[in-house]
Amino acid sequence: MIKNKRNFFTLSIFFLLIIFLLTSCSSLPLIGKKEEKKTEKLPEGKTVRVEGMETVKGVNPTRPDGPPAKKPASEPAPKREPETRVTSAPARPFVGAPLGFESQRLPFLQMGFKKKVAILDFENKTTYQEEKIGEAVAKRLADKLEATQRVVIMDKAVVSEMLKREGTKFDDLTELPVMKQAHRSIGIQAFALGAVTDVSILSSKASETSDEEVSFATAKVEIRLLDASTGNLLKTFIGRSPIFGTKETGEYSRSKAVLKAIDFGLEDILEGFFRQLDYLDWTTTIAKIEGENLFINAGRLSGLRIGDTLEIYEPGKEIIHPATKISLGWTTGQLKGAMKISELFGVDAAIGKVFQGSGFSPNDVLKSTIR
């Protein structure tokens, strides 16, 4: 009897333990069971199967009717200041009143005053002595320089006539005192002369059945640029022409080919010629004085315009090197005053009104107020 009660009690405890275990473990996940991920239901459409992956079903969403919904306006971007670009060319300076008149402002002096260049003779040192090749070079050089509108070309005959009218006696314009006088009285800044040292011509018949001549040529040209104020040689330029591009046919083909070769040689020189010419200061002089009116040796042809202002200086002093006896140039004389262009007349002359200073005299030097 007692033994049966023990067995019943043991079974009861056993059943209670089983019930307790079942109720306590029902909330734990099973080992090895993956947690299911919640996925959105895809719309019906094409089914795609990728190897090693699950099947995916979906379609492109339909395009909604009507205009797309406007996005909420975002804050406007901060306004940027426009970028300032600076050119490589320097700004044009203001022209202040000379001689200490700080409160007065003068008008701009127009840039581009043209320097006067006298073209002299070119020697013909070639084997074609019967041809006027030297004259042709001088003429074509003058035409090319004048076409740039950067210089005023002075013909040697005109310069000679003007100097003779002043009473200057000379045999050649290349004489040192003559060049300096031409600079003072006429305002010539430079003289150009030179030589043609070589010309080669190749001619042949155009074909065996034709008598028409075909010609090619080469030329070598030398130009010497002299500073008129000192007579010093500034530089010697040498221009050579290639034979290609000089082909000419027909009558006078030889002369035409030579002229083409000369043109090629001059084009090879011009850039350096102007660069050297730019080193010379632009100046002119007073020709005559009547009261406050100053008549000057430059005008419309030289690039002056009404309203331009010029400073007036005493003639400077020429400095000669004691050992070489070569001129080093001219010093700047004492500043005497200033004038303003009031009238242009003739081919290249002007009248200026004095607005500052006094005691002027002919041959006083006029310079640009822009440095």
List keywords for this structure.
single chain, about 375 residues, alpha+beta, Rossmann fold, Thrombin, subunit H, six-stranded mixed β-sheet, six-stranded antiparallel beta barrel, 5 helices, flat
In brief:
By secondary structure, the chain is of the alpha+beta class. It contains 5 helices and 16 strands. Among the domains are: 115-277, Rossmann fold (3-Layer(aba) Sandwich); 283-368, FlgT, C-terminal domain (Thrombin, subunit H), CATH 2.40.10.
How is this fold's topology laid out?
Layout: H1 2-24, E1 46-49, E2 55-58, E3 115-124, H2 133-147, E4 151-155, H3 156-165, H4 176-186, E5 188-207, E6 210-227, E7 233-240, E8 248-249, H5 253-277, E9 283-290, E10 293-296, E11 309-313, E12 318-320, E13 327-330, E14 335-345, E15 349-357, E16 365-368
Parallel strand pairs: 3-4, 3-5
Antiparallel strand pairs: 1-2, 5-6, 6-7, 6-8, 9-10, 9-16, 10-15, 11-14, 11-16, 12-13, 14-15
Helix pairs in contact: 2-5
CATH class of the domain at 115-277: Alpha Beta
Q: How many strands appear in the DSSP assignment?
A: 16
CATH superfamily of the domain at 115-277: ABC-type transport auxiliary lipoprotein component
Question: What's the average pLDDT?
Answer: 78
CATH architecture of the domain at 115-277: 3-Layer(aba) Sandwich
Strand content: 25-35%
List the secondary-structure elements in sequence, H or E.
Answer: HEEEHEHHEEEEHEEEEEEEE
